[in-house]
Design a protein that fits this description.
With 207 residues, the protein is mainly α. The protein has helices at residues 7-10, 13-22, 26-46, 51-67, 78-96, 109-115, 131-136, 139-150, 155-162, 166-188. The chain is globular and about 55 Å long.
Length: 207
């Protein structure tokens, strides 16, 4: 007998749509995809996906998810479940493309800021675009920051998704924030923007 789904998870709209889609409701499928598409696309982009391939990775994520809906029981939120699938899609993509060089990145701060499309990151009231700076963070810290500060996952869910202790996730976020603040200061002083992005994280560590 299947255990009842915890109330906080069951009451989450996206999770409800995922469960209804599993039961064969086509309208719920559309609502599920529409509700979480933006989060998935932002996540795969900040994990280091080539911007040109981010949409393909998002579509791959949803194809994988819809093919696995029969195994989704709502024990975690649909968003946490879906982002874990997105993470695997990115890892698979990087394994397949491991022999290819990273796309060229500009070292010019103004060009990096213009390229970024995510204004108003939490904790930065001036709305400076930080995508170029996020690219320079170590992959594990970038992932923790994006999950908790941009996508709004609770630390516990981010820890579950990355298979790391909650304390490690909190430490990574704190270090990411400190690095971003320093990078913004350096940029304002005329320093260069971020170097090429770090590789996609493969396992949990203490960093």
């Amino acid at each position: 007998m299947t255990a009842p789904v915890p109330s906080p998870v069951r009451d989450d709209p996206a999770t409800g749509w995922a469960l209804a889609a599993r039961a064969g409701d086509p309208e719920a499928v559309e609502k599920f995809v529409r509700a979480l598409h933006r989060d998935v696309r932002r996540f795969v982009t900040h994990l280091g996906a080539d911007p040109q391939s981010a949409e393909d990775l998002a579509q791959d994520t949803f194809l994988r998810a819809l093919g696995s809906l029969h195994r989704f029981e709502g024990r975690s939120s649909a968003r946490t479940w879906l982002l874990a699938i997105a993470r695997r899609a990115v890892l698979d993509s990087h394994r397949q493309a491991s022999a290819r060089p990273w796309p060229a990145r500009t070292d010019d701060w103004e060009a990096a800021a213009e390229r970024a499309r995510e204004p108003g990151l939490p904790g930065f009231d001036d709305g400076v675009a930080l995508t170029g700076l996020l690219d320079a963070l170590p992959a594990e810290r970038r992932e923790a920051f994006v999950l908790t500060q941009l996508l709004g996952l609770p630390y516990a869910e981010a820890a579950e998704l990355t298979d790391c202790p909650v304390g490690t996730v909190r430490s990574r976020v704190a270090r990411a924030r400190a690095a971003l603040i320093q990078a913004l200061y350096d940029a304002e002083q005329g320093g260069s923007a971020a170097p090429a992005p770090h590789s996609v994280p493969l396992a949990c560590s203490s960093s």
